Amino acid sequence: MVQDPSVISKDKEVKLTDDEILKIQQEEEKERSQIIREYTLSKKGNGFDYKVFCQEKKSGMINFSKVDVLRSGKLFQQLEINKDSTFVYHDHEVNFSCEDDWNFDGYNDLTLINWVGMVDQSYYLWLYDKKSGKYKFSPSFSKIINPVADKKNKEITSSYHAGPVTYYYSVYQFKKGKYMQTYSDVKGEGD
Prior knowledge:
The chain is mostly beta strands. Helices cover 8% and strands 50% of the residues.
């Protein structure tokens, strides 16, 4: 049985103020958010070594904080990830890949995708820039839900359902340095 947070004594009931309850909740959250372990996941591809830095918190949640891109064992580029945006319970819930060409320019790009849950999913894409030889973050990709690369048509498709009967489908193309929606359809809403 869950005890009312406003009761703190076994002998008599003591009502706490909203501020006191908030302070207790903030202290508990601070305790749960302490980092208890830091580790890296490694991958090789495109002539680079990639190290994804992970932080496990006392609550059991894992956050991905940055990606180091190394060439010949030396730091070549560091890719930042928004603070507290990739929380998962297992690092295998996040897919890190350097094997796909998301803007169809002939060069593989980097993705870090949290596939867990529709609301909490996060999508990171760094496009390889041939001119600089480095990766550039693509903020417009982060807005595409459930992205799939369609190499034949050189576009990204997005399909997902919301609720029991509503189904969304969109198509995006990479134009002028960003992903632009070129088609959208909703099925099930009022059909």
